[in-house]
Write a structure and sequence with these properties.
Chain lengths: 872, 110
């Protein structure tokens, strides 16, 4: 039976087959009965009687035949499909390099794009997991270019005077020692106003929210803990509500437990205590993060914030309080990072797909004769398209499988390591919209691959021509050639901005790592020591610090010990405003604000800072009887506020407190980075560190590598009080690395993507040129045979490729200009439109492309005309 | 004397058809004639039931059908038993014999 005959046999045919068979039977039986002596009528009747129910039999037989045909059709279709895939797979395995390059590059593109999108989706696109999050705002003091938190005075004024918010609240981060009577541990928590959870719309899963009484000075002390705290430290007991929780040796009554899943502000925080503010004596310090839930429109709230801050500070035109959507605040500057990362991965995916398309076009054109033979042997046009399409399907399937695997690995990696880069890394997951993106990318890749069957179908129609042309440079390939050149041009246009941006980021990174910290950071190590306030009143704290200093100084290898409340390069905890005696802030202007670092007497010596003018702190500065408070400033501060003369001896009111004693500048030292490596020096003030303070950074300079001192340092701190650990232990080198981690990984990501893109583009241009030379072997040979100069030919062939590259890079440079300006905020020490970078990238691309073009061109100009022409 | 025909035991028609086709390809009319001749009118098998069985067995892949010329030079559909059909026939025949023996033993046949 011919293979496809069933396709032509429809329902009608089945019916007539059955009819013919049954009628033949009845006719023959009748004939036989007539032969045995019956009359024709009797014979017919008898035959029918013997047959039984004719109609039922016919219907049954037809039904059986139809079922059988349908089953066979299904099987044959499956077999055809499996055969297509088998042929496709065999074809792909015959070209393992092409297959490998296509699957890995496109798979990588899909995987990387999906991973980055999953992170962006979690961080930027999904709304915050709070009730009606669009109404939530973060409030701050705006003194461009800085945004500062509120002081207690600010917050109390805001709470008393505002009318445009349903509720306002504020929080600050805090660490406290939790003790269950047996062991003690240091935990991260927050001190929040009693309105905090109500403002966010968070309800405790167990127990209740804070009450107003718990937020009043002298009211009951209350705490709400995280679900994890309740599970692991309270055994998940429902009757734990109402029990005392000891934090820094003070008992707080447990009033509630948060739900298991919390928002980004509550994540990683184990406890929340209700803040009880005393009426502040002065304006600063500034440490409270205020939030609000809008009652009216955002603009009305903004106007009111401006008005309150004017009244509060007796200013008539400077608007100092402002607000921003809470989600925007939490997302912060990751928007530009996210945009950059996503643009880079999408572009590389695009390059990979274009490259794949280019490789596959080359494959198809190389097999033009094979396909023509298939057509000549009876394969239908549709069959050839299906056969080619099955290769694309297999490639897309392979790439997607790889991509999904990469995406799953990437997402789980981001969840554990991404917290530094994406504000809501813990929420990163593969959800519906991410899977939608995978589908979109797969379809996009398949569509770009899909150019190939369309193209071939155009050529395979001219079977005879293809067979007859037998490799002569034929007109049928001109369209293919043009398409491939366009694909390669597009690759170069896309890779250029990726390279430029990657280069700019690497330059920034190198500039950042060369930033002068202002001191010798080698062999300096330190950690934080926090004394529970209730156990260490001043009378106990002062001897503790003195003893700690004495014991640490006795550790072998330690040459200097100092204390401070901040650490370079990112550790400034405190900003303070001030009013200069020499140039008082006029009404309507904000006080200047600078980092304010409290240090012990040996701090300058330990860091090795240079005294430029005046004196450093000495013992008299810690005596209580001084009329004026001494401060040391840095050179940037002195230049900023006293550009003409000397800063030493100048007086100021710290915190703008006019009734307080004068603060006087006694010395000037060189600059140190406290606010971040990428921030300009805008002045720093040092004041003597309060000896009875409960929280200090311990800093130690060592003779040799500081790592050997870390263990004895920890033991010494623990030896003094087993409940007080040394936390946040790090060398200055560690802290610098930490500050560089984010720019480093971003620039490495983009640079790696740029390298992949460059490699793929080079593969593309090489493939096009090799194909060009192969197709034109005869033309070239004839030219040489007719006496054409080989040098001319070389230039001609190279020029053919380089013009594509030149157009691509030209378009790419225009896009780079736009892209670099969009990401200028991420750069440091290099201009977004850095001419050197732009020309180096163009030069690099030209050089690499030239090499890729020169190899085939050399082969072309070295061809022996006789052998090429004979080969045909 | 002519005895009343026996009613047919369920499922035996398929076995008869396979049995009839076992020696070689045959058309439906041949099968009907053969079955009629062998049972000597003792079993009531209508021709229609035989054709139904033929098409059922064909759907199950136990026999294959092909058009060919008949003895009287007309077109006829010839049926051939497939290997799967032969396996089924062996099984059915052996089952039937065991059944018949068991029934015979019960009734005290020697």
């Amino acid at each position: 039976m011919p293979r496809f005959s069933f396709l032509r046999r429809g329902r009608h045919r089945v019916g007539s087959d059955v009819d013919e068979e049954l009628h033949a039977h009845l006719d023959r039986r009748t004939e036989e009965l007539v032969a045995s002596g019956m009359s024709p009528e009797e014979a017919r009747t008898e035959a029918l009687r013997q047959f039984g129910d004719l109609e039922a039999a016919r219907a049954y037989c037809r039904q059986q035949d139809n079922e059988k045909d349908a089953a066979m059709q299904r099987r044959l279709m499956l077999e055809d499909f499996a055969q297509d895939l088998r042929i496709g797979l065999r074809g792909l395995l015959r070209a393992p390099m092409t297959t490998l390059v296509v699957v890995t590059t496109v798979g990588l593109g899909i995987g990387a794009t999906t991973t980055i999108f999953a992170a962006v989706n979690a961080a930027l696109l999904r709304p915050l997991p709070y009730a009606n999050p669009a109404r939530l705002v973060r409030i701050y003091t705006d003194t461009p270019p800085n945004r500062f938190p509120f002081s207690v005075a600010d917050y109390l004024a805001l709470e008393a005077q505002q009318t445009t918010f349903e509720r306002v609240a504020a929080y600050e981060s805090t660490q406290m020692t939790y003790s269950d009577g047996v062991t003690a541990e240091r935990l991260q928590g927050r001190r929040v106003t009693w309105t905090y959870f109500d403002t966010l719309g968070v309800r405790p899963a167990i127990g209740r929210d804070f009450t107003i009484a718990e937020g009043m000075n002298g009211g009951p002390k209350a705490v709400i803990v995280s679900h994890r705290f309740w599970q692991s430290r309270l055994g998940g007991r429902l009757d734990a509500i109402g029990e005392p929780i000891r934090l820094d040796a003070v008992a707080y009554t447990l009033v509630g437990v948060l739900p298991d899943s919390v928002g980004p502000l509550e994540r990683q925080r184990e406890f929340f205590i209700a803040a009880q503010f005393e009426t502040p004596r002065r304006h600063g310090p500034f440490f409270l993060a205020p939030i609000g839930r809008l009652k009216t429109s955002a603009s009305a709230a903004a106007d009111e914030l401006h008005a309150i801050s004017h009244r509060l500070f007796y200013r008539n035109n400077a608007a100092t309080w402002s607000q921003i959507d809470l989600q925007t605040w939490i997302v912060g500057d990751s928007t530009s990072i996210a945009a950059l990362a996503i643009a880079a991965v999408v572009l590389v995916w695009l390059i990979a797909s274009l490259n794949a398309s280019n490789l596959l076009v080359a494959r198809v054109t190389n097999r033009r004769r094979e396909l023509a033979v298939r057509v000549a042997l009876g394969a239908t046009h549709g069959r050839i398209v299906r056969y080619l399409f099955s290769e694309s399907v297999l490639l897309a399937f392979g790439a997607t499988t790889l991509g999904v695997l990469i995406a799953y690995a990437g997402v789980s990696g981001l969840r554990s390591f991404g917290a530094d880069y994406f504000p809501r890394a813990a929420e990163v997951s593969i959800d519906g919209s991410v899977l939608g993106l995978v589908l979109g990318l797969t379809l996009g890749s398949a569509l770009i691959f899909g150019l190939i069957p369309a193209l071939t179908s155009a050529t395979s129609q001219n079977v005879e021509m293809a067979l007859r042309s037998s490799g002569r440079s034929s007109t049928g390939t001109r369209g293919v050639r043009r398409l491939r050149r366009a694909l390669v041009g597009a690759q170069f246009a896309i890779v250029t901005p990726v390279l430029v941006v990657g280069g700019l980021l690497l330059t920034s990174l190198s500039a950042l790592s060369r930033v002068n910290l202002g001191f010798d950071g080698h062999n300096v190590v330190g950690g934080a020591v926090l004394l529970p306030a209730s156990q260490y009143p001043p009378a106990r704290a002062i001897p503790y610090w003195d003893e700690l200093q004495r014991r640490v100084a006795a550790i072998p290898g330690v040459t200097a010990v100092a204390f401070a409340d901040g650490r370079p390069p990112n550790g400034s905890q405190n900003f303070n405003d001030f009013d200069l005696e020499a140039s008082p802030t006029p009404p309507g202007r904000a006080h200047p604000v600078v980092p304010w670092i409290s240090v012990s007497i040996d701090y300058f010596k330990l860091l090795g800072l240079t005294l430029l003018e005046g004196r450093l702190f000495d013992d008299r500065d810690w005596r209580d009887d001084t009329a004026e408070n001494p401060v040391v400033v840095d050179r940037a501060w002195a230049r900023r506020f006293f550009p003409g003369g000397s800063a030493v001896g100048q007086r100021l009111h710290s915190g703008g407190c006019a009734q307080c004693a004068w603060t006087v500048v006694v010395g000037v030292v060189n600059e140190v980075k406290y606010a971040g490596l990428d921030k300009p020096d805008e002045g720093t003030v040092y004041e003597p560190l309060n000896r009875e303070s409960n929280a200090k950074y311990l800093l130690v300079r060592t003779v040799a590598s500081p790592s050997a001192v870390i263990a004895p340092l920890r033991d010494t701190v623990r030896g003094l009080d087993a409940d007080v650990p040394l936390s946040e232990v790090a060398t200055i080198a560690d802290l610098v690395d930490e500050a560089l981690a984010r720019p480093k990984s971003l620039s490495i990501l983009v640079a790696a993507l740029a390298a992949v893109g460059l490699l793929l583009s080079v593969i593309g241009i090489y493939g096009v040129m090799a194909y060009y030379v192969q197709q034109h072997a005869k033309d070239i040979s004839i030219r040489i045979a007719l006496g054409g100069s080989r040098g001319d030919l070389f230039r001609r062939v190279v020029g053919h490729g380089m013009i594509v590259v030149a157009i691509g890079v030209g378009v790419g440079l225009l896009m780079s200009y736009w892209a670099a300006r969009a990401m200028a905020g991420l750069l440091f020490g290099v201009r977004a439109t850095d001419a050197v970078m732009f020309s180096s990238v163009a030069g690099l691309l030209a050089a690499v492309a030239l090499t890729a073009c020169a190899l085939p061109a050399r082969r072309a100009s070295a061809m022996s005309p006789a052998s090429v022409l004979r080969d045909d | 004397m002519k005895r009343q025909p026996l009613p047919l035991v369920q499922g035996t028609v398929d076995m008869f058809v396979l049995y009839a086709l076992a020696p070689g390809p045959m058309h439906g009319y041949g099968v009907a004639t053969l079955v009629r001749g062998r049972t000597d009118g003792q079993l009531t098998i209508e021709d229609g039931a035989l054709y139904q069985a033929l098409h059922r067995l064909e759907r199950q892949g136990l026999i294959e059908a092909e058009w060919g010329p008949s003895e009287n030079n007309r077109r006829a559909r010839y049926y051939t038993v497939t290997p799967a059909g032969r396996r089924r026939l062996r099984q059915e025949v052996s089952n039937w014999r065991r059944y018949a023996r068991a029934v015979g033993a019960l009734l005290g046949d020697t």
